[in-house]
Design a protein that fits this description.
Blueprint (H helix, E strand, L loop, with lengths): L9 H19 L3 H26 L9 H9 L9 H13 L10 H4 L1 H5 L14 H4 L2 H8 L1 H15 L1 H25 L22 H7 L2
Helix pairs in contact: 1-10, 2-10, 9-10
Amino acid sequence: MNKNIFKHSNLYVILFHHLLIIYGIATYGFNIWIALAILLYTTIYNTVINGELIHLRMAHNKYKDGILEKFVTIYSLISGGAGSPLSFAYIHRMHHAHVDTELDPHSPKYLGNLRVWFLFWKIDKINPNYIKDYMCSRFQVWMHRHWFILQITTLIIFWIINPLIVVFVISPTMVMTLHYSGFINVNGHLKGKTRNIPEIIFTQPLSWKHDEHHKKYS
C-alpha cells in the first residue's frame, strides 16, 4: 500500500471551511441562538456519528459492510475531520497499538501539540495488517481512494442547492470535528501519558474517559 493515500488532503478542505464560516458571519451577521443551535448539533454529531459509530463501532470492532456503516461513511463526508473511515481506522488502530511511542502516528510527545491538533500526523510506513477487514470492503476502499474529490463534489452540490447549508451546517461540522478531535488527541496525552479529560465531560460524554478507553483497547 502507498502511504500517499493516507495524506490528509482533507485538511485543506477543513481549513477552507474556516474561511467559509468567516464569510458567513461577515455576510449574514452573528446570531447567538443560531450559534448555540450549531454548537448543539455539532456536539451531537461528534458524540454519535464520530464517537459512537465511526470510532467505537467501525474502528475498534471488525468492520463489515452494512446499511448503517455505509450510511455513516457517506454522511461523514460533511465532516471528514480525520479522513475516510478506512484511514481513521488505520490511524486509530495504530495509535492504540503504539500509544505515545515513536510509532504512534499522532503522539504530542513526539510531534508536538500543533501538528497533532491540525492533522500533520506521522505515517512512515503502511502496514495493511491493521485494516485487513476494511481492505475486504470494495465500498470502503473506493470511498477512501476518492474521498477528497467526493468532499469537494459534495460541497459544490450543497452550495448550488443553498449556500446557507454549507455556511451553517457543513462548515461548522467540519471545523468543530477538527477541533473536538484535536482537543482530545492533545489533552488526552499530556506529558506523554494517557489521561481522562474531565474538561469535556458535558460536550463529549463518550470521550472524556480517555485513559480508561486506552486501557480497555490496549
